[in-house]
Amino acid sequence: MVNMTLIANAQACARQPFPHQYGIIPAMQTNRSFDLKTFLIMLGAAALGGIWANYNRILAAGLSGEAALRPNVWAVFALPFALFIGWLIARRHEGWLAFFVCFCLYFFSTFIAARYESCTVVTGQFNLAICFANTAEAQAAAQANRHEIYFLSILVIQSLAALATALQRALSRSTMPDRTQQQPNPAISPNRPA
Questions:
Q1: 80-119 pLDDT tens trace
Q2: What's the CA gap between 174 and 166, in Å, rounded?
Q3: Environment class of residue 52 by beta-carbon count within 10 Å: exposed (0-12), middle (13-18) or buried (19+)?
Q4: What's phi and psi for 137, nearest 5 deg?
Q5: Residue closest to 163 by CA, chosen among 153, 155, 173
Q6: Contact by Cβ (8 Å): 124, 30
Q7: Closest alpha carbon to 44 in 92, 100, 5, 82
Q8: Distance between CA 101 and CA 112 in Å, rounded?
Q9: This prediction's pTM
Q10: CA atoms within a 13 Å half-sphere pointing along the CA-CB vector of 26
Q11: Are 131 and 114 within 8 A, CB to CB?
Q12: 3-state secondary structure the chain
């Protein structure tokens, strides 16, 4: 008896018109194509920031003490800042989102790179056991090689995150329908009686 009721309900639902017949779904559709301009601007700006960060990373390796401070700051800050500028050029209306995402990229990549350095600096390969057990030894080894692993890994992490961000923004052109490319629904006509 229950199966017959379910079948009857399913058949009744199948006879009812779908929302797309009333124009509900076409009005909600968005343009989901790839925005090459946004992708190239954001990735190009991030690439310039990455080149500047790598230059400063190499420059800081030859300096010591206070002289290495400014290049080290640029090595960490350049790529997120350049990505932010590129994002603003590509999509000015997403300024607060760009600021938030680029700040998070800058802020959290430092922690990830520091943890990665402490896990690899002692043995030369990633090892979680050493990461949490031999922290004093890891700090001494990182100081000895002037945090080479940290600055290189932060550049790699930020580059990958910038690529992912540029791809995500290029694939999500808009959350609103593009009225210039939206096709009218023939099922809805202004002359059709209600």
A1: 999 999 999 999 999 999 999 999 999 999 999 988 888 8
A2: 14
A3: middle
A4: -65, -40
A5: 155
A6: no
A7: 82
A8: 16
A9: 0.70
A10: 14
A11: no
A12: CHHHHHHHHHHHHHHCCCHHHHCHHHHHCCCCCCCHHHHHHHHHHHHHHHHHHHHHHHHHHCCCHHHHHHHHHHHHHHHHHHHHHHHHHHCHHHHHHHHHHHHHHHHHHHHHHHHHHHHHCCCCCCCHHHHHHCHHHHHHHHHHCCCHHHHHHHHHHHHHHHHHHHHHHHHCCCCCCCCCCCCCCCCCCCCCCC
Summarised one tens digit per residue, pLDDT across range 1-26 is 555 665 655 555 555 555 544 444 44
